[in-house]
Amino acid sequence: MDHAIRFYKTGGADVLRHEGIDVGEPGPGQARVRHSYVAVNFIDIYFRTGRYPAALPSGLGSDAVGVVEAVGPGVTGLKPGDRVGYLLGPQGAYASARVMPAEVLIPLPDGVSDSTAATLMMKGLTVQYLFRQVYPLQGGETILYHAAAGGVGLIACQWARALGVTMIGTASTDEKAEIARAHGCEHVIVTSREDIAARVREITDGLGVPVVYDSVGHDTLMASLASLQPRGTLVSNGTSSGPVNIDTTLLAMKGSLWVTRPAMVHYATPRAHMLEMARELFDHVLAGRIRSEPSRVYPLADAAEAHRALESRRTTGATVLMP
Predict the structure, then answer these.
(1) pLDDT band at 313 (very low <50, low <70, confident <90, very high)
(2) Would you place residue 79 in the very low, low, confident or very high pLDDT band (cuts 50, 70, 90)?
(3) 44, 186, 215, 232: least buried by Cβ within 10 Å?
(4) Strand, helix or coil at 210?
(5) What are the φ/ψ torsions at residue 130 (nearest 5 degrees)?
(6) Which tens digits make up the pLDDT trace of 97-135?
(7) What is the rounded distance in angstroms from the CA atom of residue 63 to the CA atom of residue 117?
(8) Taking 90 as the threshold, does the pLDDT of residue 291 lie above it?
(9) Which among 219, 254, 249, 264 is positioned nearest to 233, based on CA atoms?
(10) Helix or strand or coil: residue 278?
């Protein structure tokens, strides 16, 4: 029998239930995918806790990799046996298998393993749209990137290095700072003992940076704004420490700053564009410029423990589930 993680009420990790499911056959425009790895992302916690709405009862998870088992009528370009991944579509990736819209499935190239791909579908393509679309980096810039030792952050460290960008990262501990440096982050600010904005100004000879990528949110907002050059851009791409509320008058006072809150769905569609994003990402992987493997692997049934580890900030790199 196949299994999935579901939750019937919002709350702590203990609301997650490991249940038997009937996956069924794919209908028109659909494919059934047998998962090999399922990614765990901080956004999953937002759905579980109710910060992001979900119709209950609900599945959980947005991205996974695996093999196509069957395709429905009208599906072209995919066949049983194809290795694929995905990051768009309905919640429910925490499962051993599921039926998905074929249009969101991304073929995996030879040379990119399932375990690597599982860390890249959401996390790697997040870096792609942050660095190549939201605020397109050309090379030569100095940027500030929060949570540099996280799953997205370690990919960002490597992508910045590949672009010739000087990355200033933040990390909560010296251990995490060393991990970020080892992945290409040139300067790391340890937030437990250093003033973020003061260090940014010191590193940049008082100029500040043109862009800050901030997935932390509430706790880092003021430091992010204080680190920017006049007319600089704050990319608020997450709220792991709490929501962000900005008085627009403050943006003028800080230097006529820009703020954007991007969402993947608006950058990864239509399908042709999503496939081009994936091609650029996989080119870096195949060339050895980006290396990524799971730092922690949990059985699907232990999804609650994976969430507890992520929420406690005990993790670095990517966490995945294995059905």
Answers:
(1) confident
(2) very high
(3) 186
(4) strand
(5) -70, -45
(6) 999 999 999 999 999 999 999 999 999 999 999 999 999
(7) 10
(8) yes
(9) 254
(10) helix
**Among 279, 276, 284, CA closest to 162:** 284
Q: What b-and-e string marks burial along 26-56, b requiring 16 or more CB atoms within 10 Å of the CB?
A: beeebbbbbbbbbbbbbbbbbbbbeeeebee
| Count of helix runs (H) and strand runs (E) in the chain | 10, 16
Contact partners, residue 130, CB within 8 Å, separation at least 6? 156, 213, 235, 237, 262
pLDDT recorded at residue 67? 98
Residue with tokens 């940027």: 143
pTM over 0.90, yes/no:
yes
DSSP track, 3-61: EEEEESS-SSGGGEEEEEE------TTEEEEEEEEEEE-HHHHHHHHTSS--PSSEE--
Tokens for 261, please give them: 């809150």
Where do the DSSP E strands lie in 251-317? 258-260, 294-299
Fold of the domain spanning 2-118+293-322: Quinone Oxidoreductase; Chain A, domain 1 (3.90.180)
Q: Which fold has domain 123-264?
A: Rossmann fold (3.40.50)
Report CA torsion sign: 95, 101, 104, 109.
Answer: positive
Please give the Cα distance from 210 to 135 (Å, whole number): 10
Q: Where are the domains of the chain?
A: 2-118+293-322, 123-264
